[in-house]
Amino acid sequence: MRRKILPYNPKLKPLAKALRKNMTLAEVLLWNKLKQKQMLKYDFDRQRPIDNYIVDFYCKDLMLAIEIDGSSHDFEEVIKNDGIRQKKLESMGIHFLRFQDREVKQDMENVLRKIENWIYENTH
User: pTM for the full model?
Assistant: First the structure.
């Protein structure tokens, strides 16, 4: 299967690099489970620029973005902007899985199970 090449704003590269250096605890915990093809042999990137946005984690082969929503995502304006952003990226063929920050910290097993289930359902 050929990967779809997605456009990105090159001006976002320095910000993505800075975000990789300053990941939240939940992002670090999930990254430790996704990196080095640990998730069913799929390669994930962290803080990946796509279009004019940066997603927390992204798998090119699955066109899957995984987002971790912390407390800043509880505000109405942020929720609205997240929705606009997600719709735009979904229009490019990207799928989303969203998890709450506390969910990743407190129930990693279930988070990993949900990711695995999504992969199985969408690849078999």
Answer: 0.92
Domain boundaries, the chain: 10-123
- Taking only the tens of pLDDT, the chain with its 124 residues reads 567 889 999 999 999 999 999 999 999 999 999 999 999 999 999 999 999 999 999 999 999 999 998 766 556 776 788 889 999 999 999 999 999 999 999 999 999 999 999 999 999 8
Q: Which CATH code is given to the segment(s) 10-123?
A: 3.40.960.10
Strand ranges across the sheet with 53-59: 45-50, 53-59, 64-69, 95-100
